[in-house]
Amino acid sequence: MKKLVFTLAAAFGIMAATTQVQAQKIGIFNSEDVIQALPEHEQVQKKLESYQRDSLGKAYDELQVKYKQADETFKKDSIAKKPKAILDLDDKNRRELATQLIYWNQIAQQSSQNKYIELSSPLAEKVQKALHKVQKAQGVTIVLQPAALDMLGDQSGVINLIIPVAKELGIKVEEPASGAAPK
């Protein structure tokens, strides 16, 4: 009897949750698309390019110089028959620098990505505020990335929030033809 009551309670709970989810308005939104459409994004790009050229380029050059110096030190100490502890330390330093050079592209990419996040965070906040305003005005309770549409069966009630948010931010956008799927 307890199992029957529990099963019925679970079934009603699932039905209630399903009804509640169905009553929710779902919107799609990709903040990066809107951030990149902002006029201020051009300045972020210029600052990022400057960072990559000036800071990362200089850091790479300095790393190469350090590696060459470490390699020369190791070779000189080897020729001078320095103690094993010194040679091991020289070799360890040289290998660490070589590893950094080998993985420089990944290091630079990660540094660039971190710098982009830092530079674009004011834009992201601006976009987020506009999204919340539009979301509230349209009664949207759930916001998903456009890629999540593939997982939804019925997409008829999904609201594309990109255009209203762009308009809220003063970005000129072309409306998709009626009936066009949201992107």
TrEMBL record:
GO CC, alphabetical: cytosol
Record-linked SUPFAM superfamilies: OmpH-like
Pfam family name, one: OmpH
Entry's Gene Ontology BP terms: protein stabilization
Keywords for this protein: Signal
Gene Ontology terms for molecular function: unfolded protein binding
Signal sequence segment: 1-23
Family of this protein: Belongs to the Skp family.
Stated name of the protein: OmpH family outer membrane protein
Organism: Haoranjiania flava
